Amino acid sequence: MATREWNPSDFEVEEEDEEQTLSPLSISPPSSPLSYFARDRHVAFLEMMYNLIPHHYQSQEINRLTLAFFTISGLHLLQALDRIDKDRVSNWVLSFQAHPRSKAEVKNGEFYGFHGSRTSQFPPDENGVSVHNAGHLASTYCALAILKTVGFDLSMLDKESILISMRNLQQPDGSFMPLHVGAETDLRFVYCAAAICFILEDWSGMDREKAKEYILNCQSYDGGFGLMPGLESHGGGTYCAVASLRLMGYIEDDILSNNASSSIINVPLLLNWSIQRQATDGGFQGRANKSSDTCYAFWVGAVLRILGGYKFIDKIALRRFLLTCQPEFGGFSKYPGDLPDISHSYYGYTAFSLLEEPGLNPLCAELGMTDLAALGSI
Fold first, then answer.
1. In 154-215, at which residue ranges do the beta strands (DSSP E only) sit?
2. Which of 24, 30, 78, 155 sits in a 20 to 30 Å window from 127, CA-based?
């Protein structure tokens, strides 16, 4: 059984030779980028993904719920949620939930969240119960985000099983494993746990104080956050740290307009590190001395939005960079000149939402979905 899933907080932290990263659609050279945000072409791109994912994504089958999140939430950002069948989507998502055979099993150490795909979901037994459980934190975040986006009533979920079993994943140092066996622990999964509790409006699924201490231990000398204590500051890790603290109520929104000096994190250093991630080409990099990448316009941009420091970036230069990553047939690529893929397309849309592009729904920076979905106003 595969235990390593891609997740919405997976920011390619292991890559060194970034120029060799290939798009799932890398078959032929991309066409010239457009000089404007081509909303209709982006809608068509996501409609294609919604109806039939190209075969180049076969290697990501285990991440099907994540790909669905990018597609469905992307359509909502583009104000095109009417292109999908909401009831069909919610029923499909619900089919991935892992269920315990009895109440006693909820505390057996496994996680009764959502599977990432059929690949990780073994057939149920004769009683309709999934015996082999591979529930995953990131898949659960994506599942709940999709259900919020399509307007599903989350009170109908067995949230008790999700939350009680999720607490089994929290480690003594406050971090989380994404599933019950054989996985790493870092800030990505602390964020997923915090987002799940926030969406379900119930914090019984985690020890917030322990999680807070783990997050604080990840802030580096330069102000950014590494994915684990002692690691290099990273745009994705910094987002997970700041967004988690905001969701858990430990930092205020727009902290720069309030008393930043009393914050539990070093806000001046964090602000300085985040602003420095905007490169000379206008884009954002995930780490010092790395190339600009479409997705960091969200990971770092959202941090600045939460802090109240988004006003300090060069928005014109950022928009110009993002448009170089937008081919004429829609979607966004990782780098200028590459072909588009679903994940970078989604983070391109979130970046343009942060830039307040006309025709896009506003973004909830902490949850990485539209404000409308986050507020349940679908």
1. none
2. 155
How far apart are alpha carbons 370 and 377 in whole angstroms?
10
DSSP 196: H
Radius of gyration of the chain from Cα atoms?
20
DSSP, collapsed to helix, strand or coil, labels residue 108 as coil
Q: How far apart are CA 127 and CA 112, in angstroms?
A: 17
Token pair belonging to 227: 């994915």
What would the pLDDT profile of 54-95 be if each residue is shown by its tens digit? 888 988 988 999 999 999 999 999 999 999 999 999 999 999
Side chain identity, residue 135: G
Angle between helices 39-51 and 64-77 (to 10 degrees): 150
pLDDT 10s digits, 265-279: 999 999 999 999 999
Closest CA to 162 of 223, 195, 205, 119: 205
DSSP secondary structure of 97-166: B---SSGGGGGSS---SB-SSGGG-PPP-TTS--SS---BHHHHHHHHHHHHHTT--GGGS-HHHHHHHH
Q: What is the pTM of this model?
A: 0.90
Single-letter code of the amino acid located at 306: I
The 3-state DSSP class for residue 341 equals strand
**Nearest Cα to Cα of residue 84 among 99, 72, 101, 100:** 72
| Of 255, 278, 257, 275, the residue nearest 266 (C-alpha) | 255
| Cα–Cα distance for residue pair 143/116, rounded to 1 Å | 9
- State phi, psi for 67 to the nearest 5 degrees: -60, -40
Distance from C-alpha of 329 to C-alpha of 326, rounded to nearest angstrom: 8
**Which has the closest alpha carbon to 223: 209, 241, 210?**
241
Q: Quick one: which of 190, 187, 305, 177 has its CA closest to 236? A: 187
